[in-house]
Design brief:
This protein is of the alpha+beta class and 375 residues long. It is built from five helices and 19 strands. The strands form five sheets. Strands 1-4-6-5-8-9-18-17-14-11-12 form an eleven-stranded mixed beta sheet. It has a two-stranded antiparallel sheet with strand order 2-3. Strands 7-19 form a two-stranded antiparallel ribbon. The two termini are 18 Å apart.
Length: 375
């Protein structure tokens, strides 16, 4: 299978470290590209993967997922990134207002979205809206439940209803997350950097094809379980539940897993939390929250489409085979293709993801990566 990777600056393959900013040599035509393309087979679907979050390093996770989908399974994948308008080809997840390349959704067979609280201009949002009206499949990862957020200064947008905090009593209440994926941002159910997520089979989903090739214990990640409201709306079907696991080793801020391990075996038990000024005891594993589910969506003037949503899938979550296979299986399911009995999800190239964390703008500028450096 031939794979052609088109990168930010039609590179000459050598990166130069210019202080703390990664730069790359350019060909004579000095042409800049703003996305990554991984060519698969002519007879396979086109997938657009949209990154853009400031915390869970979707700009690292999605190129790796795209490589697996393309090199191992033949899908044609294009990865989009948040960028500053004045610096095309330089990834800046802290820019909430610009993701070049969304026009390629016009020819997409599937959209994978991993964004957080974006307020994109109408001309970019229109491509997402048009795609959804066609009822094409959507796979949402982690912060995609709160993919968009339009503040008061953005209220002239035609797409304010996509925002996570949209509260009008209509079909869009709860924004894109609730209306399309099945849930918006609610809460951290597990404790950040101290409690990890172990995936177990949801009742009634034991034989679901998304579980093909995955054993219980395989799906794990250092990101915590998100809270959702139960039951999930409409025809949502929980596929994977998130068991909240305590970190049993020492907290290590220098470790990208923060000291948590897939072998941690201590379940979270009763914990005291404050709610509306009162202290209450909750058991974070009773009930357990769904971390992956299927559902359908349909805009008022559109066709019906399929959704797979997974709140596990940060860059460091993808270090674990079961978590990668969960997402790859979800792609096949969304596209109504036969899910492999055991999909090949081997890591490609030197995958060295960053720990999840927020970075202030000045810090991030020192860490900026050219798209080529993600290749």
């Amino acid at each position: 299978m031939r794979t052609n990777i088109i990168i930010a600056t039609f590179l000459v393959a050598m990166r130069i470290n210019c202080g703390n900013v990664y730069c790359i040599d350019k060909e004579e035509n000095n042409q800049v590209k703003e996305w990554l393309v991984y060519e698969g087979r002519d007879d396979m679907p086109n997938i657009i993967l949209i990154s853009g979050d400031e915390e869970y390093r979707s700009e690292e996770a999605l190129p790796q997922l795209a490589k697996i989908l393309s090199l191992k399974h033949g899908f044609n994948c294009t990865v989009l990134f948040a960028q500053d308008k004045g610096e095309p080809g330089i990834v800046n997840p802290n820019n909430l207002n610009n993701i070049p390349g969304l026009e390629m959704l016009q020819n997409a067979d599937m959209m994978i979205i991993f964004t957080r609280f974006r307020a994109l201009p109408d001309e970019q949002m229109q491509y997402i809206d048009d795609y959804l009206k066609l009822g094409k499949p959507v796979l949402g990862i982690r912060t995609s439940t709160h993919a968009f957020n339009f503040s008061e200064i953005d209220f002239d947008s035609k797409f304010v209803h996509y925002g996570n905090f949209y509260d009008e009593d209509d079909e869009w209440k709860g924004g894109f997350g609730r209306a399309i994926l099945g849930e918006k941002w609610i809460s951290h159910h597990g404790e950040h950097r101290h409690q990890s997520t172990l995936g177990i089979k949801a009742s009634g989903a034991e034989s679901h094809p998304i579980w093909n090739g995955i054993n219980e214990g395989d799906i794990w990640g250092p990101t915590d379980v998100y809270g959702v409201r139960l039951p999930l709306p409409g025809d949502s079907q929980p596929i994977v539940l998130g068991q909240v696991m305590n970190r049993t080793g020492e907290y290590d801020k220098k470790d990208r897993l923060y000291g948590m391990k897939i072998t941690d075996s201590e379940l979270a038990g009763l914990e005291e939390e404050e709610e509306e000024g009162e202290k209450i005891e909750i058991n974070k594993n009773d009930p357990m929250m769904p971390i992956a589910w299927t559902k359908s969506y349909q805009l008022q003037s559109g066709k019906k489409g399929k959704v797979f949503c997974s709140t596990i899938g940060a860059s460091t979550d993808l270090l674990f085979t079961g978590t990668r296979r969960l997402l790859v299986n979800g792609v096949f399911w969304c596209l109504e293709m036969k899910v492999p009995q055991k999909a090949n999800v081997d890591i490609i190239d030197n995958y060295d993801p960053s720990p999840y964390a927020f970075h202030k703008e000045k810090y991030w500028l020192k860490k900026k990566l050219t798209i080529a450096s993600l290749e």
